[in-house]
Amino acid sequence: MNFVRDIPAKVCACSLRLLLSAMPLACGYAASAAELPAFETDQQADAWLRKHSAFYLKMTEAIDKRGGYKFLPSKEIPGGLAYTRDGQGYIELSEKLKGAHRVSIIIFEVTNLYQDDRHQEVTRRVYSGELNNPVEFSLLREIIEYD
User: Fold this and answer.
1) What is the mean pLDDT of the chain?
2) Which of 67, 72, 130, 131 is the 20 to 30 A CA-CA neighbour of 99?
3) Could you give the CA distance from residue 63 to residue 12 in angstroms, rounded to a whole number?
């Protein structure tokens, strides 16, 4: 069973609500959706966030030192999903996400990659058999995201 892809939707929805309410703080930029530029690509949004948020830049520089990340489109994921495979970070984003909502998911998933070592420790416990409860797995991952 792949617990990473099976996180309950309610847990993800709660995280999204928290993220959207904290987006101006997370970006370090008090922008409303009306002030946010229109981005043609996720890479453009990422570059803009790096330029306008010192904390976002700090996170992305740390991720870049570990191999960086790539954006991938997804028809299966309703929001976003960040993961690392063979030293490369990936952020899958739903093709349905648009505008400020999409940018907020990028911030959220970059934060997950930034905290990847902590997420991997929880995942390691699943693979070792120490942790076999999907609800406990989800809660441990959520605790990392709120930290």
Assistant:
1) 83
2) 67
3) 23
Distance of CA 133 to CAs 26, 98, 139, 143, 145, Å?
31, 34, 10, 16, 19
Confidence check: pLDDT of 15 > 80: no
Domain residue ranges in the chain: 3-146
Helix locations, the chain, DSSP H: 9-27, 42-52, 54-65, 99-114, 116-127, 134-146
What's the pLDDT tens digit per position in 99-122? 999 999 999 999 999 999 998 899
Which residue do the tokens 């690509």 mark? 41
The three-state secondary structure class of 52 is helix
Distance between CA atoms of residues 144 and 47, nearest Å: 25
